[in-house]
User: Fold these one by one.
Assistant:
Number 1:
Amino acid sequence: MVHSTTGRRLQRIAIYGLFAVIALYTLFPFYWMIASSLKSGQAIFDVTFLPDLKFNNYKVILSDGVFLRSLLNSFIVATSVVALSLGLAVTAAYALGRIDFAGRSPIMFLFLAVSMFPQIALLSGLFEMIRWLGLYNSLGSLVFAYMIFTLPFNIWVLTTFMRSLPRQIEEAAIMDGCSPLRILRCIFLPMMGPALISTGLLAFIASWNEFLFALTFILTDENRTVPVAIGLISGSSRYEFPYGAIMAASTIVTVPLILLALLLQKYIVSGLTAGAVKG
Amino acid sequence: MSSLDLINVVKRFGELTVIDGVDLDITEGEFVVFVGPSGCGKSTLLRMIAGLEEISSGELRIAGNRMNETPPAKRNIAMVFQSYALYPHMNVERNLGFALETARLPAAEIRERVTKAARFLQIDHLLDRRPAQLSGGQQQRVAIGRALVRQQKLFLFDEPLSNLDADLRMEMRVEIARIHREMKATTVYVTHDQMEAMTLADRIVVLKEGRIAQAGTPMELYERPANRFVASFIGSPRMNFLPGTLTQDGEESVLTLFGTPHRLPAHDYAGEVTVGIRPEDLILGGGEVTLTADVLLVEPLGGEALVHLNVEDGRSIVVKVQGKPDIRPGATTSVGWNHTRANLFDKDERALSRKGA
Amino acid sequence: MTSGPMRIGLKATRARTAWLFLAPSFLVLFAVALWPLGRTFLFSFTDAFLTQPDLYDYIGLENYFTLFEDPLWWQSVRNTLYFTVISVSIETALGLAIALLLNARLSGRGALRAVILIPWAIPVVVSARMWQWMLHDQFGIVNHVLKLMGFIDHGIAWTADPDLVMPVIIAVDVWITTPFMVLLILAGLQMLPKSIYEAAAIDGVSQWRQFTALTLPLLAPSIAVAVLFRLLDALRMFDLSFVLSSNSDDTKTVSIYAREVLVNFQDMGVGSAASAAIFLMIALVTAIYLTVFRLNRKLLGA
């Protein structure tokens, strides 16, 4: 008996050791990013594990109007994408999840197929469409383009969720004289809180992080989003690369996402798995 | 109050016919119960009346007007669901008033009607609660209240008590009977519980495989079941069935049971029959027909007792007796009944009537 | 039939509502996905230039010939496939291992689950920058630590050395996307019925046998779905390579190649041909994957 408890304890220690290794592996790059961002000037080139707590890099990056502007742009794009894709997806999901009509399965399949399209395959056609809509080099082009990966996914997840809502509640609402729109607004929407948070969060993160379209459809600095801004920062030579500023900018973009990920972990996970389980 | 007419109503799901030509007239103020085993179509029929299922063919009339294509909310009906279907994010008050809110009634009137219904159902102290904070019985009251508030002419109940435990079920049964007595609204009530049907109904409609097996008052169904299915469905414990043959002998009929002939009043039928006798109509010691039987088991229920017997071909029957019978398992006894208490069914399981009756 | 021709049934009304509710989403997806895809295919048969996309002539398959004669295209195809196969394999194995670890009922696993989510949640560009800095040949922490430990004398040029840059990109991708695998596999693990493990334990089945005979087969569908998602994602990889090793031919993916031709060279025809080829390639991989998976399932089921 004594032997087996020691064995168990060893096993536990081993597992916690692995936990620690994984956590270190995952988190150290972030620590290093933040530590580097807090070193000023030449200090960044000395490898010291403790930061200096100098905020020079932040001052530089925040006094740069272009970076602040791109932060704002990212926020505008991401929130607009969330609002638009959720608004569209909720109504579509009601149709697909609650109404039995001919053509439902092919449409579900079509939406699923669209969500698998590689973005690059649409680039030239989308380029033309965005020019035609007069959205080139505007934030609108990104809000529009991001529908490709947010809308089908949201429809898919919300449809699954919608299907799980009790049928009799909807029937009670029908008997109470509700139109489909009123059922959606007054009965189902309030019941869908968790699913809306999940899909909204994932849409926000995806839009906040997107790079290819943001790089291609935006020409001028003042309309860029944050990932492109960071991706395009460069020094006059390889040795003058402003790593301090880049790390500061990266920290600023990352912190809200880390907070979202930590606080709303549950919703992110349920959204991700809801999207995948059905595949 | 509203009358309700079903005229040759049919429901098909693809190849499957679920409701196969139902004709029924329900008069104003009547309390009608649809009863039958699961899958008999009783809920589907109710949902067709509500407008939640489309009618494949036939006609539905409410107060004389065709309603087949009328949306549910415009049929002047209120419905109570098995799962209560309360809106989980609204408090009791909003749940009760939601239909009126949807119909854009003035706030003062909504409040008045909600208060009245809540008081009537003794849930006025719960108005601020959410459904999740209520017991099953309270939720059921809110569900009924939601129907009452709308002051409709026709009430539909879809197995409203089946999610409640036995005590509450009895209490709510009494409550529903009280509501019907006071509101006098035409009511259609679906249940699989024949006891609920017997106690609540003015008229019971027994459904089997999408058709009406029999419709009539509880006592009619109990006393004169039209077929073996209704006979076995209504009454608890179930009616006993014994196989026999019926032959004609002049002005009389002869029923042969386990090789022994018994003389009966005349019937218009000869051939194989099933004799059905209710447990409470069997007499220990014998009657106009008497069989011998072995006592299998005695179940005392307090005021009465159930005696399980094995008759001659090993078939088991149940006798209900008052008090505690002085009889033991293993003993041999005789058991019988009087002709008027026996139901005869032909080989198509239809009830036989006496000549001239 | 009693219902007259003018009367609209309840079911028909519901169906009309459904189409009405679907219309806006349908329209948006048509404009943003289906139409552009069709136009991409169309442009791939033309000599259009990005500056004047309205002026074009049909030139048949010429763009495809140009594309297939370009060794750089084939190199980017090789790069993409190599990256996809290696990174998805590692991520699946690692993801499965971490998921099994996290499935153990231990305190602190919730916190760890939250922690591993972070690399996935942040922009790939930021991850690329972060690792670029850590892997810097002169000032990077990785070289510093390796030097301290005595493994190397001189800093390694991780992202400049043609032999190292692809492994580095794969390593960073593993860091970024393993959490995604972990979460999906963990969700699958948590759906497995507990009772079969109790039954197996009572029957004296060893832990290893429980894993190979119960967990793996039952988990296969979850893993398969997660792998498909990753596969689709890896095949269209763009940003990581673009930022970490911008102009290196050794890490050029098909997405980078297509965008380069389209945007930098403004050659809409060849760029569209490359895009269309990528679309077909990914569709083909998906189809093969799904067929193999389904076949496997059938074989296992039989």
Number 2:
Amino acid sequence: MDENILLRLRVEDLLYREADLLDLWRLEEWLALYTDDAHYHVPPSDVDGDHADPNTSLFYIVDDAVRMRERVIRLSKVGAHSEHPRSKVRHLVSNVRVRREGATIHARSSFAVWRAKDITTDVFVGHYLHELVEQDGELKIAKKTCVLDMEALRPHARISIIL
Amino acid sequence: MARIIDDPAGGRFLVPRKAFTSRDVFEKEYAAIFDRCWLYLGHASELPEPGSFVTRTVARRPMMFTRDKDGEFHALLNACPHRGALVCRERKGKSRAFMCMYHGWTFASDGHLMTLPGSSGYPEGFKTDPQKQMVHAPRLGRFGDFFFVSFAHDGEDLATYLADAGDILTLISEHSPSGMQIVGGTQEYAMRGNWKLLSENSFDGYHAATNHSTYLDYLKNTNDALGGTPLSGVARNLGNGHACVEYTAPWGRPIASWVPLWGEEGKAEIAAVYAELETRVGPERADRIAHKNRNMVIFPNLVVNDIMAITVRTFFPVEPGYMEINAWALAPREESEWRRKYRLYNFTEFLGPGGFATPDDVEAIEKCQQGYAVGGEALYNDISKGMSRPEGPAFDDEEQMRCFWREWDRRLAAAEA
């Protein structure tokens, strides 16, 4: 089989696993999909999210590995009121495209994420930019950028789940 | 009519919950407050050169904030005088002219009609008829680099309206020797709650310990992000419904309170920033700027929070139970890459829809709105904390909210009279 298709299948498998872990609120296992120096970013809607730099633009989320871990710790506490009781979450991932560049695999995919809780149901629509690396024969996520294909985060009020 | 109960002698301050839910109150608020008060439009740094423009909605009105070819600032109602279509449909940019896409009427950045197709169909002088020009907001005011509009033709000027809140805006502008700027990237979100809940929440010093316990835990967990300074301070009445809390806090401030997380390199840089500040504004003011945090609400809906970063936030009700919010980061122009990076990192840590704190504020605001559905016009919110404290209100009392509510009540009552 074409090498790029094989690679895409491996990447899809990882992205589906990530989506599944997030839907199941198995956040410790989600974190283990990432490298020790990973990043998780969500840029705002009024910048070019594919290229914006969180060091020069205000983002919604700029997590390094420390803050990703703290985000997971926070969400495990009842004091994270926004997600206690937990919302129902569903991640759909599709249109996965992959490209190898040196040691890094770049994956681009489409997402729709539903968050339902209490009286509200919100949909987040956009595309993921994943940067993946091989570590000990395993694919790990080094960076995930969630670019919202939305004009504003409305009527939403928060990205209290992990996109 | 929903009136507050303000009884200092009895230590009672009560706000009717109807104020958050009633459509009648909502419409009266637009007439008595949003169509009368000075409202934040934007910051000079958003329009860096002649021809720059941004579009945004202010008090339900689509607006254009522009600079003309001579660099003058204008606030235009974004509707074509011909048939009313939005003239500018872009969020921001630079343009010498704006053509309405419907029939091609074309306007300059100052709103005057430059050309219109088929002008032979109109009488002589039509093009210069005042009614065929784009309409300016009745008043545009500037305080430092902050621009405000008023949709009332009369009333106090901007500086008088701002009262002592102007001093806090000046203090914030003094963070920089070269001027402050809005950093690129806007947080644009919404909450399913009444707008006044966000005015209250933005300078509520009482809720941190419970509502934001996980944020405080996070600061303790994360490798010296927390200094030794305790949360402590006062509330200030700034006049005309504006108020702030001013307090010390344990988090790092890019102007200029160092925390161990920032390392030795950061320590040297923060020390240099502080030294420049002290030379420029003197030791007392430098200490206040660098080591005190300020959460301010300029009545009715401009929040300027000078905390672990600076946020400028404004919001408008769309419905009694739904508001739209825009928030920006404000920073010194000359700031180093290192300091800008930590400022924005600080900002997203606490503030905004993806931060470690704001989502829980949202939860509180939305749950208040839901709770009001239990109904009954006799139900009131209690805003009395610290009302009888002999030494004056502390930062975690509710005096700042009482300033807001007294002005809200005064304006609605005056409109009723």
